[in-house]
Every structure is written in C-alpha cells, then in structure tokens.
Amino acid sequence: MTTIVRTAVVPSRRWKNGTGRTRELLRWPAAGGADDWQIRISVAQIDADGPFSAYPGVDRWLAVLRGSAVELTIDGAVQRLTREDAPIAFDGAATTTCHLVDGPTADLNLMLRDVPGQMLPAADGVEWAPTAAQCGLYTALPGRCHHDGAATALPAHALLWFERAPARLRFDVEAARPTPFAWWIEADIDPTEASR
Fold it and tell me: Is residue 50 classed exposed, middle or buried when 0-12, 13-18 and 19+ CB atoms within 10 A define those classes?
C-alpha cells in the first residue's frame, strides 16, 4: 500500500508546553492508543524556546525544514542544526531543550519505537536502495518519485509512504532547489505485524 499525505491538510495540535504545534503525518500502526505506535512521522512548528517531551524507548531524528536554525541541548551537549544540515539522531529519553537561533522553525521528525530505521537527505536524481521493510520520502519541493518501474508525482511538503519498500527509488525535483530539499525515511518492520 502506498500513501501520500500533504502536510497542509493535516490538523495541527498544540504541544502541552505551548511552545509549538505538531502535524502528525503518519502513525503506524494506526490503530491503538495514543502511544501504541512503532513509527511516527510529523512536522512540528516550534514558536519558542523550551523543552522537548521525553519518549523513553524511542529513537528520534530531526531535520530543519524552514527557518534559520535550532540549538538542541541533549543531555547537556549542545548541537546546532540548520536547513543545510543532515538530520540528527538522538535518544527520545534524553533530557532535550530547544533554543531558536533566529525565530520560529518548522522541523521534520521521525520517531521509532523498538524498530531500526533512519532518516537521510535525498539527492536529486540519485537512486536509493532501502534496506528496511517500509520506507518513504518527505519532500519540501514538487517532483516525481520513481519506484520499481512506476512514478508518483508529489506536491511540495508531502510524505510518500510505502508499507512494502520498493527495491530502488529515485526522486527528481521539478524546480531549483535548496540543499537539502527531501529526505528518505525507512523503518524495518513487517507490515503484517499490524494485523496480528
């Protein structure tokens, strides 16, 4: 099964601490309670400095989509992240606070609970071979994703998700592009496990 989710049509929810809002693009499996998921992909709007919620047992990735930069203090270590940087990975259980360098940012988030996976920048026209059972692409610009002999047109700021990963993928951008402009995401979980 293939799913396309446009960020703009997903309702945003205010964080408990009031410093931002989140649009949840994908939660897998979808059934179950609020924390009964293994894959979660979202876009967060961070409006003010403040702490991140703790997610014990969860591996997190974060990439800056819009805005200048963030400085994350993760268990006391400071890491600066701009739009030009590759995503960073960190432990969801870590004590993490965010400082906005020059105003609000929008950030792409991947969370994996007890599942191996990763988020990495996509290069225009360069093939990528996922190693996990499920994978996807989040793009900030419109283009076409080629996968196993087919092609899917994508608008800007959308997630394309494959419950069964193709053998190879390639993303071709339609316009001039910043760096990075899209991100590959993968999670090594068997799609049949959701129905057990």
Answer: middle
